Amino acid sequence: MHKKICLTALAALAALAVAGCGSNGSSNLGVNSPDNAIPEGTVLKLGLLETTDIHQNVLSYDYYGLKADTSLGLERTATLIKGARQENPNNVLLDDGDVIQGTLLGDYQAVAAPVTCSGTLAVHKVMNALKYDGAGMGNHEFNYGLDFLSQITNTDFGVPGVQKGSNCGAPNFPLVLSNVVGVSSGKPIFNPYALVAKQFTATKPDGSSMNVPLNVGIISFVPPQIMDWDQKNLAGKVMVNGVQESALKYVPEMRSKGADLVVALSHGGLDASPYSPKMENGSLYLATTGIDALMLGHAHLIFPQAREAGAPAIDASLAALPSTLVDTSKGLVNGIPAVMAQSWGRRLGIIKMVLKYQGGKWVVQKDQTSVEARGFKYADGKTNIDADPSIAPLVATEHQATLSYATQPLGTTTDFEMSAYFSLVGDVSAIQIVNQAQIDYVKTFLASSTDPVLASYKSIPVISCSAPFKAGRNGPTDFTDVAPGASPATPFGLQVRNPGDLYLYGNNNLQAVKIKGSDLKNWLETAAKQFAMINPASTGEQDLVPSYSTIFNYDVFYAENNAMQYQIDVTKPAGSRIVNLTYAGKAVADSDDFIVATNDYRAGGGGNVPGIDGSKTIIKSPDASQAVVSAYLKKQGKVTNAANGSGQSWSFVKVATQGPVILRSAPGKMAVAQALGLGRVTAEGALDASGFAKYAIDLSK
Question: Which family would the database say this protein is a member of (predicted)?
Fold first, then answer.
């Protein structure tokens, strides 16, 4: 625990007996004397509150579209927090990571105009004002490098070569992370855990009230894949241990130092595969390590099933988990209460617990626990709650600066709309330009290289893949849409914000891999897993894309002059859907060579594409993929639909279905499909519980 946090805790809890802050963030606050001994059978009710994956969505605002978005924002979560605190006077507010990156506000404060040592990130200002009790880390905390992370958290990582400003601005609450350690020291770079000392009101057996101390232990974990995703920032400096191994090491230590309740902040989802220390979503295996509650993140999903009227169904990936291990209704994972509060501040996780003082310690009454992922429409199922008016003024300066940054001209015009509303049924208007930029970069790199190995690759075809990163993962407002202007005669001038709309992950760096035709087929099959297996004989409604939770893994491939073509047969099981794969008019053979322009996430193994694990990487660019797209747009000066937005490389194998097949997308976009000539999109249907429109898809067209 940092010195200033320790002092803050002392000042806030002056009424307690204080022995000081330990090296692991532990404390002896709240020790009972004989005069205030807790009677056997005393009951304590409390609420554990969670936010996760805020991604710098502080305000209810879309910086890419320059418009308000009342479906998101920590300023609205603040209203939920206020309500939950009124319901649960005994409460602990925690965050599960992925806080600092994700919007232009984050990029502005980290890259365009980096916050100084004396400053504090906008999102941290708000979290301080909301009086968070503690927080864990997420994988995106590492996107801007260890120097920046060290500065904004005022933490000395003990990693050689990593600089830290002295007494920099930081969150006024403990930050913990147990499974990332320094290579040279072998010690966690953050405190692995903290004991948060709270004073709560409990009820004695005679019905009277008394104040009692409770030490809430918090411990945090991130996916081991950060070593692949942020290799450029982390290689040789830190390493990552498995989540279960780290929990088994530190949870007993937390108990021995006085933790009455242990809460795991796991920035990972739920995966029922056999445990591995390299699991990206190993949270299931934390429930057996002696913890009392589990807070989940990373997957941007709702867990448990939302309660509000007309709530969306539980995500297909969660529904498929064994019911003996995961109760999606009660919010239990191996019997431990668990919650995931979606993302972008759109929900608040609430775990209500009852503790009884028995045998000299607090014992969780499991049968009285309830779990909820509360959303903005909880009150009546229709209208969103209002934002907390105290939040926006805290970040007004940063907000205005970000708007000025976002609207700087890029120097490029376009005559067409680049959108992702129908990218899952063939539209490439927001994908082709990214693929063209990546191909141009790699071909230029190879042509100018003096490396003899790279020089030998110059005759190998260069192709590219990119995913529709903003295509509904975070709700019906989460779609790329770069407007063309009033008409083709008055083309729209692109701005700094637009490349970020086309390529969301500004931290990704461009890389290239050398693969065989067999690898390419496996890659395409992996991407095609996004689709459901459609039964042509079924008369019931079938969802073409059952879950958008991993939409960033739907890679769309492209070659210059549209030389690469392939089809997807959604009536076949996953793994056998790709047919008619050709390059330059010839069937692709397993032995054919290709160079694929992609990003460091995918090249390093992200998305679990067979054989794509870092071993085939031939180019590791120092340039961010988003910057590559921006530079390409500037170089073009003007982009057109004919040259940059209509090169569809793939299609569905035609099939007639007896019942309706639907695609969920933003409402009111039928005209977009018609303008694109997507005849397979035949009608816009009713809205679902999440606000998506259910578009009818005719797979015979």
Answer: Belongs to the 5'-nucleotidase family.
